[in-house]
Design a protein that fits this description.
This protein is α+β, with helices and mostly antiparallel strands. It has two domains: about 120 residues, Galactose-binding domain-like (Jelly Rolls); about 90 residues, no CATH class. Helix content is about 20%, strand content about 30%. The strands form three sheets. It has a five-stranded antiparallel β-sheet with strand order 2-5-10-7-8, with no helix packed on it. Strands 1-11-6-9 form a four-stranded antiparallel β-sheet. It is elongated and about 65 Å long. About 20% of the residues are buried.
Amino acid sequence: MDTDMIISKTRFVFFCFSTTISFFCQAQVLEAEKGVLVGTQVATQRTGYLGTGYVTGFDSDGDKVTMTVDVIKGNLYNLYIRYAAPFGEKYNFVYVNNLNLGTVQFSASDSFKETLVGKVFLDKGVNTIAIVKEWGFFELDNIRLEKTLPSEINQIASNVVIPNPSAATSALYNFLSKTYGKVILSGQYGGDVEFNRIGLNRKLESIRHHTDDRELPAFEFDRASKHFLVATELFLPKIVAQNYF
């Protein structure tokens, strides 16, 4: 065998080795049948599964399978789920590190197929991912994790697009545009009873509004020196906001 052929084969082997390492660094498959099963069972009757089987028996509340993954560094991942959902679409819960990420729709499929759930952040070290019965009656083959990047934040206009906005409208838009992509605004609809149950959290400021002429604080926090009054005509008759930026 001549030297050029040896070098060529060496490069090919190195390329394959590098590609394999890169693949496993970027993506990881967790077989459901190797997870911790609660109320579910491993099956092999449906063809087309990967690994040594799949998990079925999502019949009763609390039925689930939990898989564990260890990552060297915290990172954002695309979460894919490979499943089968005979007899119509199904909805089930996805938990990451005991946090319910909400309901995931699994479209009807008699054969195993993969769907992208979305992006999840995994902490450095051991993480758990659980698929928990909501509707149930579907079959889980595996989950796949693929490193990804945060979604780009849309570039929004610096001013409202309507001509001649009121000062209150401009002030509200100024507040929303400055907080866009930095914080999450959430709230509880209801009267004083609901608000009192929530209580005031100095880290997660309360958002409050009312539909009559009373002005209730939309943000309550300690840095009261930086605040401004907002009354919007866009949706709610009155909103009072304090700006902490």
